């Protein structure tokens, strides 16, 4: 872990924030790699890409066959960490392409992304956002007949000291897209969105500015990483709730 208040970036220049709208996944992947190459060559700045994707499933390097869709739905295999997930409309995706300070501390980088997203989720009025031990991303605590549930996912890669891939924050997506897969390889917890948790529509545009500000602050040390432990259901309780997770966490039609 870096010294609190310190930057994880080698550059002292600003992070360029690109708000790109909706971009096909493979096209965005090409843009990421171009930024990564430029940053490693010293010809480009640190960049934060903020966008949405058309509906797509992507599988990280640790994805086993049993996590994939069983109905033949296409999957894009990518070089990030983690397992399979879904991206689509109503989900804010962010790709920070930054050169990290040495010695490389990828765990610290992931914790900074989580910290930024925790700040965004909390700032919207969702209580209890934090981390589940041993799992990346941003989680909400078990309670009220629901298991712990993920509102934001993270999967990254570092190439030549420069980051690739990033995070996905569920704003108002159709959560039934997660039914075809085992999201992030997790079978004993749920997936949720800001709209579900707040009971009102929260779109990507509603969180763009806050996310950009929090991400830059976290990367540069202005938003220090803090402990945000999330309570999880006991094993017996989690088993009883597993069948209810999908029922409880669907997006209400009025919010689509």
Radius of gyration: 17 Å
Uncertain residue segments: 236-256
**Subunit organisation of the chains:** single chain
- Straight-line distance between termini: 40 Å
Q: Helices and strands: which structural class?
A: alpha/beta
3D architecture notes:
Helix content is 28%, strand content 24%. With 256 residues, the protein is of the alpha/beta class. It is globular and about 50 Å long. The protein starts with 15 loop residues before the first strand and ends in an 8-residue tail after the last helix. Mean pLDDT is 87; it is low at 236-256.
Task: Tell me briefly what this model is.
This protein has 5 helices and 11 strands; from the N terminus they run E-H-E-E-E-E-E-H-E-E-E-E-E-H-H-H.
């Amino acid at each position: 872990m870096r010294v609190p208040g310190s930057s994880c970036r080698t550059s002292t220049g600003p992070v360029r924030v690109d708000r790109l709208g909706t971009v096909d996944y493979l096209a965005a992947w090409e843009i990421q790699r171009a930024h990564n190459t430029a940053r490693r060559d010293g010809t480009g700045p640190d960049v934060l890409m903020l966008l949405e994707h058309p509906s797509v499933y992507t599988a990280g390097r640790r994805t086993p066959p049993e996590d994939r869709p069983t109905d033949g739905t296409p999957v894009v295999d990518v070089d990030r960490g983690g397992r399979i997930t879904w991206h689509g409309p109503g989900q804010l995706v962010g790709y920070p392409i930054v050169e990290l300070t040495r010695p490389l501390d990828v765990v610290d980088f992931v914790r900074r992304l989580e910290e930024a997203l925790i700040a965004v989720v909390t700032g919207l009025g969702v209580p209890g956002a934090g981390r589940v031990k041993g799992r990346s991303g941003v989680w909400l605590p078990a309670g009220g007949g629901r298991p712990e549930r993920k509102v934001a996912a993270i999967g990254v890669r570092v190439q030549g000291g420069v980051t690739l891939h990033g995070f996905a924050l569920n704003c108002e997506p159709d959560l039934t897209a997660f039914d075809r897969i085992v999201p992030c390889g997790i079978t004993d917890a749920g997936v949720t969105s800001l709209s579900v948790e707040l009971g009102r529509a929260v779109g990507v545009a509603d969180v763009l500015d806050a996310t950009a500000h929090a991400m830059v602050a976290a990367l540069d040390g202005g938003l220090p990483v803090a402990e945000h432990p999330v309570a999880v259901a006991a094993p017996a309780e989690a088993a009883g709730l597993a069948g209810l997770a999908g029922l409880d966490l669907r997006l209400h039609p009025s919010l689509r």
